[in-house]
Each structure stands twice: as C-alpha cells, then as structure tokens.
Amino acid sequence: MILTDSPDELRAFLEQARRVGRSVGLHPTMGSLHGGHRTIIRRAAAETDVVVVSIFVNPLQFGPGEDFDAYPRDLERDRAQAEEAGADVVFAPSTAAMFPEEPQVTVRVNRLADVLEGAHRPGHFDGVATIVTKLLALAGPCHAYFGEKDYQQLVVVRHLVDDLSLPAVVVGCPTVREPDGLALSSRNAYLSATERSAATVLYHSLLAGKRAVEERGVSDVAEVRAAMTVVAQREELFDLDYAEVVDPGTLSVPPKVGAEVRLLIAGRTGKARLIDNLAANRQED
Ligand code: PAF
C-alpha cells in the first residue's frame, strides 16, 4: 500500500494506473476511521481496481468555535485500518500541500446549503463541496464513495457532480450501526459512557418517525416530526437541533408525506454534535 502526502505524487500514480486500464475508487475521509469507513473501503475494493482513501481534516468545512482543533487525528492507526480494509493508496496531505496559498476560488452550494445542517453550520457545505471537487480533480475519473450517514452531504455531492459535470460516479453507502442502533461516527469518540448510551436517542427518534409513516400510515408531516421530537426531548442529555421530514432528493419539506421520505435528526450530547437519518416508505392510499 502507498502512503503519500503529495497531491502531485497521487495524481501521477493514478494517471499511470488509469493508463493501464485500472479503475479508481475514492473514499474521501477526515480520518479517525471506524467500521463505517472500513465497510465503504471494502465495497470500493470489490468494485474498483485501485482504492484511494483520502485523509484530510478540511479546515474549509469547520466554522468558528467548531471542533477543527479537537478532531481526532491518528494517521498511523488510520493507515493500518485503511490497508486492512483493502485500500491501495492513503492520501494524507497537509493543509499547506492542499492549499499552498489562501484559495481565491471555492465552490458555493445554493439552496441545499441553507437547510438542515447548512442552517446550523453556515459555510459548511461550501467547504465540503470545494474539497470534494479538489479531491475528484486529483484522483481523476473515478467512483467516489460517501456514507449515507451524512445524508445531506451525499445529496450535495450528487448535485456537485451533476451540476458541474464532473467525471465521477457517486456511490452512496448504507450507514453502519452499533448493535443498539447508534450510527458509527468519528465524533462518538467525544462521548462519555453516559452520553454514549443517551446518544441512542437519535436512532430511537428516527424509528418513531419511521413507524408513524410505515405502520400508522401518517401523511401529515407535522405529526411525523412530532413523533420524532417527543422521543428526542425525552432524553435529558440530548439537546435537539432539528428532527425533520424531507423529500430524499431535494431535501425540501413536502406538503404531505409521499411514497418515500428521509427522516433526519441532529443535536448535541455533551461536546458531540451528532446527526443521523433513516429512509421511510409510505404505502400510498
Ligand atoms: O464526510 C467527511 O468525512 C468529509 O465531509 C469529507 C467528505 C471527507 C470532506 O472533507
């Protein structure tokens, strides 16, 4: 396996790989790899010839007062995990290597960045879209793998690739959960033992929404939202930011629950800001 911090070396290596007909799979990460990342890397390894895992804690997507400095970093551990899961290249550039000068050109995400996570984290999705564009440009035509856990990010990246006609195929990968339902996330590392057990409330809240849609056939969006909110607010250690019902493609709140909706939740447990989501399918009357 190759470990490089050089964008030029990465580009040259992948150009050569493509020249001899090898397909490239890219899984962009911010490191602190866990079972969710490993599942994605294994899938990329099954579907493409050369699997690149990028590890870059992207300063452009953190707002003032967010956890950029605290974000867990352990390159040696990440390298070993990526290799074990089947990565061929780990690309772990420094900020100076990615941005030798302050960038004068960035990508701006429109309406999709104003809602949900975007409303709570101004500028976040512009930062994500900018770095993903750069990573795709460096890796070249490829399959790019993203977790559904960051559902809004996945929708933004799909639009980024479509709207800017970037030569990549975006592959969304199902969320990996602990046995008690907690979605795997690098930020779970911030949780104390009591906060960790409180954090299952995100999943339980989503399940309450899903049951309302799928078992009780609720078509009123406010009623589904309320079913989620009631569960979320029962947990004292969880501070809810939003529990929402959206169209899975546009992320807009539909006038009525349609055949397919996405339920999303976000909030804070101790120092950790956690997000999760689930699909819900309604039998149309
Ligand atoms: O999902 C993440 O870890 C990051 O947002 C990403 C896609 C690697 C961009 O920095």
Describe this structure in words.
The chain has helices at 7-19, 35-47, 75-85, 95-98, 117-120, 124-139, 151-163, 193-198, 201-214, 221-234, and strands spanning 2-4, 24-29, 50-55, 89-91, 142-147, 168-173, 238-246, 260-269, 272-281. The protein is an alpha/beta fold. The chain folds into 2 domains: 2-173, 3-Layer(aba) Sandwich (Rossmann fold), CATH 3.40.50; 186-279, Pantoate--beta-alanine Ligase, Chain: A,domain 2. It has a 6-stranded parallel beta sheet, sandwiched between helices. A 3-stranded antiparallel beta sheet has the order 7-8-9. Strand 5, helix 7 and strand 6 (168-173) form a beta-alpha-beta unit. The radius of gyration is 19 Å and the shape is globular. The site of pantoate has 10 residues, from strand 2 and helix 6.
CATH architecture of the largest domain: 3-Layer(aba) Sandwich
CATH topology of the largest domain: Rossmann fold
- Approximately how much helix is present in the residues? 25-40%
Shape field: globular
Bound ligand species: pantoate
Rg over alpha carbons = 19 Å
Q: If you average the pLDDT, what whole number results?
A: 97
What name goes with the CATH superfamily of the largest domain?
HUPs
Total discrete domains: 2
Largest sheet: number of strands, sense, barrel closure? 6 strands, parallel
**N-to-C series of helices and strands:** EHEHEHEHHHEHEHHHEEE
Q: Helix- and strand-based class? A: alpha/beta
Beta percentage is 15-25%
CATH class of the largest domain, please? Alpha Beta
Strand order of the largest sheet: 1-4-3-2-5-6
First-residue to last-residue Cα separation: 54 Å
